[in-house]
Amino acid sequence: MATQMPARLAALVLLGLASVLPAVPSAAQVAASSSTTPGDPAARPFIEKMIGDGFAVLRDKGLSRPAARAKFRAILQENVALDDIGMRLIRRQRASLSPAQLDAYRAAFPEFVLNAYADRLYDYADAKVQVQRTVGRGPYTEVYTRVTRPGAQPIDTIWQVKPAGNRLMVNNLVVAGINLALTQEADFASYINKNGFDALVTFMKSANARSLAVSTK
Fold first, then answer.
1. Would you identify the CATH topology of the domain 4-18+38-210?
2. What is the pTM of this model?
3. How far, rounded to the nearest angstrom, does the alpha carbon of residue 132 sit from its chain's CA centroid?
4. Can you state the angle between helices 65-79 and 43-58, rounded to 10 degrees?
């Protein structure tokens, strides 16, 4: 579990993030439907800019690792609905938590996710992401992309984008038909069942401290 959680969370930002809605349909199912709409026209440029900003940091040879890491974190904080996602991952346990437990989790979770992402983004420096289309689904817009890397099979992904005030935020990602945040929710539930909720928070805090120590060297 200690290795699964950061790895899955890193994948969530590279290829996205799960809502409480049912699993997003496959690309084939969407293509077969004649009743879909393109959704919010701002969703496509929003995702394209987020991806472009991320790769610009990855490929900037003038940036040190700590400086690049700080830029990644700023991009994620600005564009990903971290608190909403964190609350969904513990939705089944939330009613049993004390205010202090919930506050501790909400304080540790964003930093834990951001560190997991920032530490692994360089693995995707050679990737290309092409936006293919957008589909409206209720209040959300799904942005369909294809991720390609040299020597690897293409991966189709669906970013779920939601309105947040006067802007948009990443709310979900489905990779090759698999809802990654729902998988992460199952990982969290399994860890909590075996070790308790407080142990999960302690795990995240320890990971955050390790990442801080590395980033300040």
1. Nuclear Transport Factor 2; Chain: A, (3.10.450)
2. 0.75
3. 20
4. 170
